[in-house]
Design goal:
Layout: H1 3-6, E1 7-8, E2 38-42, H2 43-46, H3 61-74, E3 87-92, H4 102-119, E4 124-129, H5 136-143, H6 146-150, E5 155-158, E6 164-169, E7 172-177, E8 185-191, H7 197-200, H8 217-220, H9 222-226, H10 229-240, H11 243-246, E9 249-258, E10 261-268, H12 271-294, E11 299-308, E12 313-314, E13 317-318, H13 319-322, E14 366-375, H14 381-386, E15 389-392, H15 394-402, E16 413-416, H16 419-430, E17 435-438, E18 444-448, H17 449-477, H18 485-490
Parallel strand pairs: 3-4, 3-8, 4-5, 8-9, 11-14, 11-17, 14-15, 15-16
Antiparallel strand pairs: 1-2, 2-18, 6-7, 9-10, 12-13, 17-18
Helix pairs in contact: 3-4, 12-17
Length: 491
């Protein structure tokens, strides 16, 4: 195919959403994907080996996904749950940001339906965890009608400052959130989106929420303050494998997603089986996008998605990962720090300089960031202090200026009245017309035509490199036997 045959009209960005963490959607007058010179690339065209997805799809795609979810869940052993038992369905906030949020909400509804169908119990509650945005899942619960679906008082958001419960583990006492574990059984409902691969390194990714979404601040902070992302991985496994949690764990149900859409549902009584399959998806499918993004030599990055700054999406990859794409985030033997992780600010002093010699800079390909639309709720001055940033609109600038975690974000950014002015400013200052837009476009990515031509040229080479060179290395570092991958893909 000629390059021009890969280039399409821009995909509709994820719509702005009302939230206390973002500006009123009515203030967003222009999406960057709508501007001249922008286009979209379809990921299955760039990488034909990507598996088929159920969503996005036709008008009945969500109905099909709901039925697929119920079919997968019916195959899981739930005999341990009696009709008089209580069950907590555990969720995490990031799932609601995937592909518009509806698929994850539907999975949570399907889990409730099949638990009731198979066991007879009506005492099924939803516990949705968060990170630093303590009220975020309360917004999602209402937005997707989960409070009504689960029943009055049975759906609630939980956060890391809620009342805790001590959990004795092989490394000592760690602390979970009491409301997460106040039932006879727990069901872990998550997703295969790689999200913070710079944290978990695709090691025990399926287990990570046990030390994040379901843990008290004292224990979840091992990722951010105490041990650092790599060393903290074992705290999640320690909590999950504790006698206390194992006696309550019934099964896991994961929304299987790739960078291009929702593939299906993976439900299993053995969480480590799900983890193996999630490792395959994270390395093979997302690994190709990560590696492709690492080939970009210069660009303007646009934030245009209803999430905090680091969590906005392009082709299933978050901006935080793109700012580290100048290094292989999957490589467990990278230098100078094996594996290096820039993302935690622990590697940088108050002067903004690396604490150790050899710490790589943020991705130097990003010449400027145009902040058209993104939320507060995560300390993001680290990004604006390292990457020239222009924020669209006084209202958005004021929101960040007044938010406790971002009082210094605007110290390093300038303000533009309109999106058009911001983009024209970025073009003039950077001297590049190559643009990548983090707007959550489903099934592909929105970008400038100039960058699209580069990505089209690089994609076949990236696919070959990941399949033949990088995946064997990545799986070898994680103890995954490549000979069983076909089995993992079909189980």
């Amino acid at each position: 195919m000629e390059k021009s045959q890969f280039i399409h009209e821009p995909i509709m960005p994820i719509a702005p959403k009302p939230s206390q963490y973002g500006i009123d959607p009515s203030l967003i007058k222009k999406r960057v994907a709508e501007m001249p010179g922008m286009c979209s690339l379809r990921l299955p065209e760039l990488f034909p080996e990507l598996p088929d997805v159920v969503y996005p799809g036709g008008p009945d795609a969500l109905d099909k996904f709901y039925e697929m979810a119920k079919e997968s869940l019916r195959k899981v052993d739930m005999s341990m749950i009696k009709s008089t038992d209580s069950v907590n369905v555990l969720a995490s906030h990031h799932g609601f940001t995937l592909f518009g949020g509806q698929p994850y909400a539907l999975l949570l509804k399907a889990v409730r339906d099949i638990i009731h169908e198979k066991t007879g119990t009506d005492n099924i509650r939803l516990r949705a965890g968060v990170g630093m945005r303590f009220r975020e899942t309360e917004e999602y619960i209402k937005r997707y009608g989960l409070d009504e679906y689960y029943g009055k008082g049975k759906a609630k958001g939980v956060c890391p400052v809620d009342e805790g419960i001590p959990i004795e583990t092989e490394i000592g006492t760690l602390y979970g959130i009491k409301a997460v574990y106040d039932a006879d059984w727990i069901v872990h409902v998550h997703h295969t989106d790689v999200r913070e691969v710079h944290f978990h390194r695709q090691v025990d990714k399926a287990v990570k929420p046990f030390s994040m979404s379901y843990a008290r601040l004292e224990s979840r902070s091992t990722y951010h303050q105490n041990l650092g992302p790599r060393a903290a991985n074992f705290t999640a496994r320690a909590i999950f494998e504790s006698e206390f949690v194992q006696k309550k764990f019934a099964f896991g149900a994961f929304m299987t997603v790739g960078p291009h859409g929702v593939i299906g549902v993976d439900a299993d009584n053995n969480l480590y089986n799900i983890n193996d399959r999630a490792t395959f998806i994270g390395c093979q499918l997302y690994g190709k996008i990560m590696t492709l993004f690492g080939k970009i030599k210069e660009c303007i990055a646009v934030l245009d998605f209803p999430c905090p700054v680091p969590y906005v999406f392009s082709a299933g990859v978050i901006y935080a990962n793109f700012t580290g794409a100048n290094k292989d985030l999957y490589d467990m033997e990278g230098t100078p720090l094996p594996p290096y992780t820039w993302y935690t600010e622990a590697f940088y002093g108050k002067d903004g300089k690396p604490l150790l010699e050899g710490i790589p800079p943020l991705n130097p390909a990003i010449k400027m960031c145009v902040h058209n639309y993104a939320w507060t709720g995560y300390p993001s001055a680290f990004f604006s202090s390292h990457i020239p940033t222009i924020v669209v609109g006084e209202e958005q600038a004021k929101l960040f200026d007044m938010e406790p975690m971002n009082i210094h974000y605007m110290d390093y950014a300038v303000v533009s009245k309109t999106t058009e002015e911001a983009m024209n400013f970025a073009y003039r200052v950077t001297g590049t017309d190559k643009v990548i837009i983090f707007d959550g476009a489903m099934g592909g990515l929105n970008c400038s035509e100039s960058l699209a031509k580069d990505l089209i040229e690089w994609a076949p080479k990236v696919s070959k490199e990941v399949d033949e060179v990088l995946m064997p290395k990545w799986f070898g570092q994680r103890g995954v036997d490549i000979s069983v991958l076909d089995k993992l893909k079909t189980e």
